[in-house]
Amino acid sequence: VHRPLIKLSILLHEEGHWLDNQKGHKFWREYRAQKYLMEKALALNCKALIRDTTMDTKYWLTMRNHPRWNAYYCAANRLVKTKLWRQLCQN
What are phi and psi of 28, to 5 degrees? Predict the structure, then answer.
C-alpha cells in the first residue's frame, strides 16, 4: 500500500473521531470512526482505499485476546456484520 494512501486512511479515520461528538466506550468511538472511513471509501469509489480499509478491519479481527486492542476487535466484529461491509467487499 502506498504511503499517501495510508495517510489518507488515517486522516479519514481521525476525521471520523473529530466529527464524532458522542462520548462513550472506546469500542463505540472506534466503531463510528471506522464506519466513517468505510463510508468515505465507498463515496470516493477509490479501490485502493477500499482495499486498505477492509485489510485494516480484518487485521482488527486478530486483536481479540490483546488486552490493549480488544476494543478494535469488538468494533471490527460488529462492522463485518453490516450492510456497509458487504458493499465494501463487493467493490
Answer: -65, -40
Residue 7, pLDDT score: 82
pLDDT at position 26: 84
Structural domain spans, the chain? 3-90
- Mean residue pLDDT across the chain: 88
pLDDT at residue 66 tops 80: yes
Interatomic CA distance for residues 68 and 51, integer angstroms: 25
Rg (CA), the chain: 12
| DSSP secondary structure, 35-57, as one string | HHHHHHHHHHT-HHHHHHHHHHH
The 8 Å CB, 24+ separation contacts for 33-40 are 34/60, 34/75, 34/76, 34/79, 35/79, 35/82, 35/84, 36/12, 37/9, 37/12, 37/13, 38/79, 38/84, 38/85, 38/88, 39/84, 40/12
